[in-house]
Design brief:
By secondary structure, the protein is an all-beta fold. The protein has one domain: Pectate Lyase C-like, CATH 2.160.20.10. The chain is 2% helix and 50% strand. The chain is built from one helix and 16 strands. The termini are far apart.
Amino acid sequence: MLSWGTVGYAGNTTNPGILSDVFARVGGANNVNQYQVKTNIILQINSGNVVIDNTWLWRADHDVEGVIINSENPSLNGLVVNGNDVTAYALAVEHQLQDLVVWNGDRGQTYFYQSEFPYDVTQQNFGDPGYVAYRISNSVRQHSLYGAGMYSYFRDHEVTVADAIVTPQTSGIKIVAPMTKFLNGLGQITHIVDQQGNPVNQSVQISYKC
């Protein structure tokens, strides 16, 4: 829906690009069967030295006439960051059908991240492929994520996801104060980050990792 900059352009440290107060919705205007819409990526940041401030990237879970089912109105990723030195403040990404956030650029920083897994996926199309709420790509050497909440409401099918966050195993990755929460529904989030942290499900609704 929105592509920012050019891959390979470093940007300007002293005069960064600013993207603020962006609210995006992927969903039909009224009746889902009549107004199917789709996108691969809602927001893609290609250039470096960009600040993202107060952004909500939403694959809609309902339209005027009722709930969205069966992965309709598909949006695969909410945010894909390819540029280096990109910082996000108050980032919310919800209900995407693959990884909600994919961070490919180096030295990225996120301060407050809120996400909710999709309601209408299955184990086969979401849990088994290993999709997550926040993925830091294996090529990244430095990244910081402060204050992340990842929530599940697998409404239609029992879905188990292994991790909410996946990172490369390198000392330059810092994940501070992440949490997972089971809101309602079926299934579970088994770990918070990289096989660490306790499950959340119908028995235990919230898990923290300090």
